Glycerophosphoryl diester phosphodiesterase (Jeotgalicoccus saudimassiliensis), 236 residues
Amino acid sequence: MVLVFAHRGAESIAPENTEAAFKTALEHGARAIELDVQLTKDDVPVVVHDYKLKRYNKDAKLAVNQYTFDELQKIDVGSYFDKQFAGAKIPSLENILQFIPEDIIINIEIKNSPVAHKGIEPKVAALAAQHHNLDNIIVSSFDHTALLKISKCNPDIKLGFLMHYPMINAGRYVSMTGLNAVSVHPFKKITDAAFIEECHKYGLKVYPYTVKNQKEKDRLIKLGADGVFTSLETLY
Ligand code: G3P
Ligand code: CA
C-alpha cells in the first residue's frame, strides 16, 4: 500500500506545522503525518520548519532557539497564511503527539540546519515513546548522526534517512549502519528506478519528498516508490 505523508500537516490549506495543519490533514483522511522539530532556548522540542521565524511573522526577528517556549507562544504564526488562522501558535512536540491518534504514522524530522539542536535526540525519543505507538513513529533527519543518537536512546525507534543529494549505494550505506533503519527519504529529483531498486534490495522503503501534484506522485509510484511526502491534501 502506498503511504502518503501530509507534509508539515495540510500545508496547502492551513499554516504549516500548526495544530490546525495537523487536524486539517486528519480531517482530509491522512494516515501519515510529517513534522519538523527544533529546540527552544529553554530546551523544549517545538514543531516548526524554519530556523528564523520571519517568514511566519515579520516581527519575529530571532531564531527558534533564541526564544523560550513561553516567548514563542506570543508569536502569531497563522495570520501570514490567512487571517482565519490568526493567533495560531508554534506547538510543542508533546502537544501534537498528544492528539494525533496512535494508528496514524508520524514522521518526526529533526532539523539540523543551520544549527544542530544539541540535546534534542533524548527528548524526542522520550516523547515519542511516551505519547505514541512506536510502531507508528519514524524519526528522520538529514543529519545522520542525529539518527545514531536516537538509536542510542532507544534502539527500537524506527529511522528514516533523508537524502538531498544523489548517493552511490544509498541502501547499502544505510543498511551498513546497523541501525533500525526502515526507510530512505530522497529528494524527488534524485529519485530514479535504480535508486529505489537498490534500497529495496536492502529491505528499505523509499519515500521521496515533496510532491506537489498528481503527476509527480504517479511518476514516483510507477518507478517503485513506497509512498511520498506531499503538500497536496487531495493526494492523501
Ligand atoms: O521529510 C521530508 C522533507 O520534509 C524534508 O525537507 O525542508 O521540507 O523539511 P523539508
Ligand atoms: Ca520536513
